[in-house]
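Data card: per-record layout.
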Amino acid sequence: MPSTEHRNRILIIDSDRSSAAVLERYLADVYDVSVSPLDHDPLAGSDPPEAELVILDIDMQDRDGLELLSGMRNRFPNILVIIITASADVNLAVQAMKLGAYEYLTKPVNTELVGTAVKKALSVFELKSEVDQLRDRIRRNEVFSSIIGGSEGIGRVLDEVTKVMTKDVNVLLLGESGTGKELVARAIHSGSRRRQGPFVVVNCAAITTELADSLLFGHKKGSFTGAFSDHDGFFAQAHGGTIFLDEIGDMDMDVQAKVLRVIEDKRVRKVGDSKEIIVDFRIVSATNRDFKDIIARNEFRSDLYYRLEEYPVKIPPLRERRDDIPLLAHHFLDEFCKFYEIPEMHFGEEAMRELHRYEWPGNIRELKNVIQRAAVLSAGEQIDSLNITESRNTVPAASKTVSTPAEDIQTLEELEREAVERAYRAAGGNPERACLLLGISRATLYRKLKRYNIR
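The structure for this 455-residue chain is written out next.
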């Protein structure tokens, strides 16, 4: 028999020890062969047998061989099975092939026929593995198409996400504001078995205790003033899909208790309704806060944290993945040129040096804003300088020195409230535009709106 560099693994399950020994001796020169003990159940436990191919004698003394074949194919469909039997019953052969056997051989064992069947089966196995790997790569490219970057840091994130996205566990995304946590959450949903279901985004910083029941669980028409129609809450909207709890660390303690109850019971009751409904969802949550700190200060429930953090993923800040800055910058520049219908633009050497030197405390969101301003304000096809530090820190100078009475000086809190209110009004109540004007994240905007009671 020909030798191979890679030794495939074969498991022999045969109650006839002498027949098993003959096959083992014949195949052991080329393959890693093991014989299953008589008292071992290959279907016991959740892990598949450590083999690419199983040679199974269906004439078992103490169990139905066809039942074992069916169970093996159902639970471990990637493993190929060659059947051997002392029976020449054609109906038995047809039944075995229908149950997923690759080949059907009769005893007495012809070792050359077995060797040929094994070689063909393993060729099919390797071809199928290559096809599966190619399909996985194509699927991964589709799922992560919106995540730009080739750095080691983002590569680790994608590897982590790939491992967990097909498993129905709750994922907690940890990272600074502006690092792209929502994009990662959407990728997890797109790569999951729930991808045909809804993806519901919930900004936890914007949910007050008073509105929590209605927003999270829904309400019936007429259940309170202003309830003009039935409304499904966020959890019901996410039924069969994924609910993304953004900025979960900013959620009020009273609201946390309600969320914990839904996670544990998988049931919700609308405001004004007498019956509960079953909801099926997966949770992906995100925060830029340190959970150890907020749990220690009794600002977050530890029992809720442990339910959310079944699989944590850390998203690195932009300053730790500087190799991705040129890719992101060019991507955003092309995007804005198309959006504003302006000629194609590119960065000059000095502009690229600025992008690399800057620390990006606002991460990808800040980079996007800087590129947007540069695209709109640039007079030519090349962006020579971005003036990043100046654009963030410049304060308009007064035309002349004026003496201001102490009682007319506004506090920082008053100035902030006025700035937030003016930006929100100027944006027409549009949160995205207000965030762009203020240079802050959506979660920060909602916190400040709530703090200053701006409606």
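Known properties of this structure: The longest helix spans residues 111-143. Residues 33 and 389 are 66 Å apart (CA to CA).

See the next section for split statistics.
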